[in-house]
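step: validate -> pass
step: tokenize input -> pass
step: predict -> running
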Amino acid sequence: MAQAKKGKLNFRCPVCFERDLDIDMFYDEGKKEYYCIRCCFHGSEAEVEHWNELCKKKYGHLADRLEPMGADNEPLKFHPYKKGEL
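step: predict -> pass
step: emit ->
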């Protein structure tokens, strides 16, 4: 989701993001915490950053390509994508 205006980066709700929903969080000045209007998640900036780092594991190999598979019990091998490569 594009950010509407320049300034401090908007945080995405980690709970909604794990369900493939891209929802920005709002900041409550009184409680000094971020909250999501779609689900019940709320937390401090440190908690939100921590949860967002955990969500990045889901898309960790997005820019990588899977090498041809070997035997059934071998781990998967990835290599970085290069432009013009299949």
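step: describe -> The chain has a mean pLDDT of 81.
step: cleanup -> pass
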